Amino acid sequence: MTADHQRYDVVIVGGGVNGTGIAMDAAGRGLKVLLCEMNDLASATSSSSSKLIHGGLRYLEHYEFRLVQKALAERESLLRNSPHIMWPMRFRLPHRSHLRPAWMIRAGLFLYDHLAKREILPGSKSIRFDGSGPLKPDITRGFEYSDGWVDDARLVVLTAKKAQQSGATILTRTKCVDAVRGRDEWQITLRDTDTNADQMISAKCIVNASGPWVSSLFGESLSMPAPKMIRMVKGSHIVVPRLNQEEEAYILQNEDDRIVFVIPYEDNFSLIGTTDVEYEGNPKDAKISPEETTYLLKIVNSHFKRQLQPSDVVWSYSGVRPLMDGEEENAQKASRDYTFEVSEEKDKAPLVSVFGGKITTYRKLAEAATDKVCHFFKNTQGHWTKTAVLPGGDFDNQINLAASLNQAYPWLPEKLVSRYVRTYGTTSRDILNNCASVDDLGKHFVGTLYEREVEHLVRNEWAMTTEDILWRRTKQGLYASDIDVAALDSYLADKEAA
What we know:
The protein has three domains: 7-45 and 154-229 and 336-387, 3-Layer(bba) Sandwich (FAD/NAD(P)-binding domain), CATH 3.50.50.60; 86-149 and 231-321, D-Amino Acid Oxidase, subunit A, domain 2 (D-Amino Acid Oxidase, Chain A, domain 2, 2-Layer Sandwich), CATH 3.30.9.10; 398-497, Helicase, Ruva Protein, domain 3 (Orthogonal Bundle), CATH 1.10.8. Helices cover 30% and strands 25% of the residues. It contains 13 helices and 20 strands. The chain has helices at 17-28, 65-81, 102-114, 152-165, 216-222, 290-301, 362-374, 398-408, 414-424, 428-432, 451-460, 466-473, 482-497, and strands spanning 7-13, 33-36, 52-53, 86-94, 125-128, 141-150, 169-171, 174-181, 186-192, 198-208, 230-241, 249-253, 259-265, 269-273, 277-278, 315-324, 338-343, 351-356, 444-446, 449-450. Helix 1 (17-28) packs parallel to helix 4, helix 1 packs across helix 7 and helix 8 (398-408) packs across helix 9. Its EC number is 1.1.5.3. Its cofactor is FAD.
């Protein structure tokens, strides 16, 4: 992969939510931007979250009021800008009096409702369970509040797409292997991880947004000591057949003071997570342990009538969260906030490094990081991303968009309409253009995945492998057999060879 130009204002290392957010913001302010990602976009931490846009109710117990307020204020901006991949979700919190008294929960929810302005999301309330629902009959009381859902991997891809539309160059499967710091600019060696071909570029500023690799990049590519270390914490999730048919999610308290979410997922499943486990080693190798699976199942089984076994787990994933390393004794108390380190030695090209962060505050983080970058440039434009709609998000609500697609393409199956709306929004029409029947969608691979969509993903969204397509772009991997995966593999190989 070659860049269109060899000289840039800013080179961003890392294609997760923070890196793509900074690329989008900086490009929109008039800077010449290149982003390089050594794997696929969102291939690590940013596709391994709990898929929530939330303030972090439990962070209130650790007195992180500023972080919670910042995240709560961001929820509604994000929901407005991306109504296809984000939507409001109600959460039910069963009350367990021996864990937290009702007054404490009510006080926490009051703060949660009022720390930031709400216009879209309704407030919290007390509720009663009558035994007819999915919970055990001894659970009779609880609370309900609002947060938001997000398709995290698609958030990253669409943010990268917006950055590209604003003029940024996005290079996936491209690793920053060396960066030599000069007086006015960096001389940077980028390596195509598929072909091992190198290219040299230069940049006036580097942004290190490599997530769990942020500290190691200093020694490996930047030839300098890391200014601080991050704390790597593994969070694991499991996916099981749907536990409750209502649209609400559940937030379950546990004896160790942690909480676990049970979230409706991809129509037929429930997503359960997360764990907090200290981690060492390559973040790419993170996998769920049997102990983590047992831990999550035990908490769910203590609340729900239906009892789950390890054999009920249809998929699991693990990600390493790069948290700011403090003096906290355990992982769950480590801050989810973020900070920057700016290296601007005299007569040396600047370096901005991002430590920490959470997906809900990615836009604010990107804005603050871009402010620091813009300090080194003249005549940059001002803040613009708070109301920036991501590609495909230019519609009022999902129901109306689905109706519009049904009218334009009456032959389109209901499940396909539903998934296209929440995956592509108005960009669905780019896939469906000139199609008059299901046959026009081409080869059927699995679930609701057809050739026409695969071509769109390869051509427009940097997808190259079956994993990119089945898991990060569409989640159709949940329905795919080994034969389905092999068929898609073969199709992609033939396309590349052609």
